[in-house]
Amino acid sequence: MRLANYAGRATIVVDGHAVDVERASNGALGSDPMLLSDLAHHDALRGLAGSADAAAWPLLDEALLGAPVPRPPKGFGVGLNYKQHAIESGRDLPTEPHLFGKSENCVAGPFDEVVIPAGLTEIDYEAELVIVFGRTCKNATRDNAWSYLAGVTCGQDISDRGEQFRPPLKQFTIAKSYDTFGPIGPYLVTADELPNPDALALTGTVSGEVMQEANTDDLIFDVPALVVWLSRYITFQPGDLVWTGTPGGVGEARGRFLRAGDVVETYIEGIGTMRNPVVER
Ligand code: ZN
After folding, report:
1. Which of 24, 47, 66 is the C-terminal boundary of a domain?
2. Where are the beta strands (DSSP E) in the chain?
3. Mean pLDDT on 152-172
């Protein structure tokens, strides 16, 4: 299934049409997009998708899409999870995942502005696959890890490098959690929609220039490994997010940081493309 926050309402995308969940279910399901990331509702959503007369619903207008998970209970990001990015950052390859927090306030929609706080000059892009938990998860195993996930979406892990590495202590969580620094979307796509959810082509573009090009089968710690590692310590709930890490080609390595007027595009095979204009204020 391809699920969306469409004009603030839970929506299933069927053949390019926006099927409103509350209306299609005659009120059996609500309108809050947060219900989309709860696997408890997925059978009902599949039923609606299967029985919908798509043509009777409006054609989807991407400009009205919001973050498919607008209020994640919690969010994390993974550092240095592609070999090429670890090398360009001048660091050793990790032997276990490195995590930081991304707080709810940073979540933005797939076509929303990324806002650079006035005067900051080291704001960077990071195109990433984002996984979305769909049910309570503790002590997952490699074999059942995907079964805890509602699906995947595209994400940007926008970062203020100046703050992230400010001595004497590093400050990843704050530097990656400014308002609008976590756009996600355009859709929450269930794993069964994807030919191989562990091998998805990913492209990050800034103002038309391809900066990052990779495949998620290059992840050092793949999706099951991350779910296993994190759920040893932390109980996950529907709507929790993990930004799984970014491949090589970030602005810090190129000396090319984001500035007002840039447009950041994030494409992942089978999910779609986000397009976030950059402004400063
Ligand atoms: Zn990242």
Report:
1. 66
2. 2-6, 9-14, 17-20, 65-66, 75-79, 98-101, 107-108, 114-116, 123-124, 127-133, 149-156, 159-160, 182-189, 201-206, 209-215, 241-243, 263-268, 272-280
3. 96
CA of 13 to the centre of ligand 1 (A): 28
For 175-232, write each residue's pLDDT tens digit: 999 999 999 999 999 999 999 999 999 999 999 999 999 999 999 999 999 999 999 9
User: Which residues, in sequence order, are bridge partners of residue 10?
Assistant: 5
- pLDDT at position 86: 86
Mean pLDDT across the stretch 90-104? 94
Give the CATH number of the domain where residue 254 resides. Answer: 3.90.850.10
DSSP 154-189: EEE--EEHHHHT-SSS--HHHHT-STT-EEEEEEEE
The gap from C-alpha 170 to its chain's centroid, in whole angstroms, comes to 24
Ligand 1 center to 179 CA (angstroms)? 16
One-letter amino acid at 7 equals A
263 has a pLDDT exceeding 90: yes
CA of 58 to the centre of ligand 1 (A): 36
Instruction: Let me know whether 171 and 241 are in one domain.
Output: yes
> Rounded distance, CA 213 to CA 210, Å?
7
Cα of 24 vs centre of ligand 1, distance in Å, is 37
Distance 226 CA to ligand 1 centre (A): 14
Does the pLDDT of residue 89 top 90, yes or no? no
Which tokens belong to 260? Answer: 């007002």
